[in-house]
Amino acid sequence: MENAVATPQTASVITPTELLEHWQGHRSLTRRVIEAFPEKELFEYSIGGMRSFAAMAQELLAIAAPGMKQVATGQIEELNEEIKEATSKERILALWDQSTEEINTYWAQVPEERFRERILTFGKYDNVVWCTILYFIDNEIHHRGQGYVYLRALGIEPPAFWDR
Amino acid sequence: MENAVATPQTASVITPTELLEHWQGHRSLTRRVIEAFPEKELFEYSIGGMRSFAAMAQELLAIAAPGMKQVATGQIEELNEEIKEATSKERILALWDQSTEEINTYWAQVPEERFRERILTFGKYDNVVWCTILYFIDNEIHHRGQGYVYLRALGIEPPAFWDR
């Protein structure tokens, strides 16, 4: 205990590879939530004036791979939440899988020290890289949780939260 | 790039102190979501047969400080999701603030190397400590996202997701 007070906490809790696995685990669950929606309800169902789950998934697609591209290349990407090709569940799932590959590819290009540097994501959001990536993940969990309510309201059992 | 391939990624992305701040930031937002509910709806409102947001908040209370106590002391706690005292919004918020302090206190007692050790949380969930804590946080974001839908369905504007 006294040791913990004397030594400032600066060492590793999570490595880059672990953070990637954590994110991809979440993305695999989100993919199953998209799959669980019937085609029509994915694009049209809504509660309380909120967006459809397809629109939320489009936002997640717009953030994930383009965000990681910026982390890897330093090149500022514009945030484009209107993914025009994402017009069917099948297409969204294909784009999801493509993003999975792109994230892995960009991730492998990121040197360790980059995770603690500042970044202006999409030219607008100033933060440290690891905070930015956690924000991407948190935002996904947040919207997916909303998708769970849509599914329950539609009488559909969502996939188990703990199963990644 | 070639460097990143040659060197395995093992260094720090997130320090323990940063992880604590990240969690407490989320907890402060969740507190404001609890506050945003009218008293009656906090305990009674539900969509699709799901639990009330009060019941979800009780689950979060049951996990957070007792979970951190186990991380700090190694003593196995039983998961008790029925927080009997949490019978009003005021009481839930008071328990929330008490948990905030307890989490900080236990956290200060955790030596750095502990975050990479395995733990059997609540005698049931086997995982590495940092994964366990991220699970607590993710579970909170998940249920809070559900609370956002409840609020929207009730015609109440939830606090901004990015404001911690």
Automatic annotation (TrEMBL), chains A, B:
Keyword DNA-binding: no
Pfam families: DinB (PF05163)
InterPro entries according to UniProt: DinB, DinB/YfiT-like
Gene Ontology MF terms: metal ion binding
Annotated positions binding a divalent metal cation: 143
Swiss-Prot/TrEMBL keywords: Metal-binding
Record-linked SUPFAM superfamilies: DinB/YfiT-like putative metalloenzymes
Family: Belongs to the DinB family.
Protein name: Uncharacterized damage-inducible protein DinB (Forms a four-helix bundle)
Organism of this sequence: Pontibacter chinhatensis
Species classification: Bacteria, Pseudomonadati, Bacteroidota, Cytophagia, Cytophagales
